[in-house]
Amino acid sequence: MNPQIKAVMQAFPADSRDRSDVTGWLLFIGCVAGWLLTLSGILLLPLSVSWVAAILNGISIAMLFIVGHDAAHGSLVHSWLANRVIATLAFLPALHPLSGWIRSHNQLHHAWTNLKGVDPGYAPFSFEEYQKLSPARRLLERCYRSALGLGLFYFVEVYWKSMVFPRREHGPVNRGQFLLDRLWVAAFLATECALIYWAALVMERAYPVLFTVYAVAVPVGVFSWLSGFVTYQHHTNAAIPWFDRKEDWSFFQNQVAGSTHIQFPRVFNLLLMDIHEHTAHHADPRIPLYHLHESQLQLEAAYPESVKVIGWTPGVWWKTLNCCQLYDYREHRWLDFQGRPTTGRLVADVEPFDDSRAAHPDHGKDHRVRDSRAMSESVSLRRVP
């Protein structure tokens, strides 16, 4: 193992990768119960208040999805088969095919975080690329990088184009498994719609077809916006660089220094099961979500000058949306839509990695890797095949 990766792995607690079947299954069952309860609220409550249940159902889909995300990494419980079953089922309410997610998220996003053209995340256009877009596509890009448009970006660019109907070169290698996973999603959606439509008829709801669309589309829309809101901020910030050449990419720069820890109130973090302790997760996806909080604290202690810890406020979020619109890949700085620089240079000159300091966090303060060529080896991920 490269000494840089080894040093980062040693920063975590010794038991950080230990998995608990009891904890994993309880999280899954609890989230399924929350999804069923809020779905029942949509069906049973008067229309004047059922929208609250629809929003809560979208949140419950997101919570269930987070559990499935861990299972898809093989880190929720011990058994490979149990992880696969949990991931498949947990992804169904969000309409995500498992193998499409594994390819897009585990194998591309995690392996090449913040590398444009490979990472299917929120890669920014350069100013030259943006100028060549049609007026309609430029307008869409402005929408994508707005407060409400983050959900649309996730649904269209990440979910639809990367996980459901990806380009062949970016799709799963096992095409048969990918087809089967998409058929599972299609069957779930058809069954869900049929049951909701039947319930609307039994309860004599007006316009049962429209009610069915509402009961399915609103929660999925809430989930998509939450996913966009969360994942956008994980790797988009005035202090986070992006790259467009593999030879410039490095493990430390993009997994440790290029993934944020967004600090929300603890109650919100508990609701989303510490998904914002994101640096630890990117440095080692084998760490289960129920060990992320302690692992994040240890990583920040080891690399206090490198890990990006951001206290979330509406103002900070608004500033990010207005600052991080386009990117200058040669000067490594963020631009606005007019091509004006909004940050200084984010990738400096060579500073060799000192693995002895990384292994002993009390020795020295500046642990940043300034040379983007210092490390090109990506971490080995434990993936569900």
Protein traits:
385 residues, mainly alpha, 16 helices, 4 strands, disordered C terminus
Explain this structure.
- The protein is mainly alpha-helical.
- It has one domain.
- The protein contains 16 helices and four strands.
- The chain has helices at residues 3-10, 21-44, 47-72, 80-91, 98-109, 127-132, 135-144, 149-164, 175-202, 208-235, 251-256, 266-271, 278-283, 292-302, 314-323, 355-359, and strands at residues 260-263, 308-311, 326-328, 333-335.
- Strands 1-2 form a two-stranded parallel ribbon. It has a two-stranded antiparallel ribbon with strand order 3-4.
- Strand 3 (326-328) and strand 4 (333-335) form a beta hairpin.
- Helix 2 packs antiparallel against helix 3.
- The longest helix has 28 residues, at 175-202.
- Residues 349-385 have low confidence and may be disordered.
Write the topology of this structure:
Elements: H1 3-10, H2 21-44, H3 47-72, H4 80-91, H5 98-109, H6 127-132, H7 135-144, H8 149-164, H9 175-202, H10 208-235, H11 251-256, E1 260-263, H12 266-271, H13 278-283, H14 292-302, E2 308-311, H15 314-323, E3 326-328, E4 333-335, H16 355-359
Parallel strand pairs: 1-2
Antiparallel strand pairs: 3-4
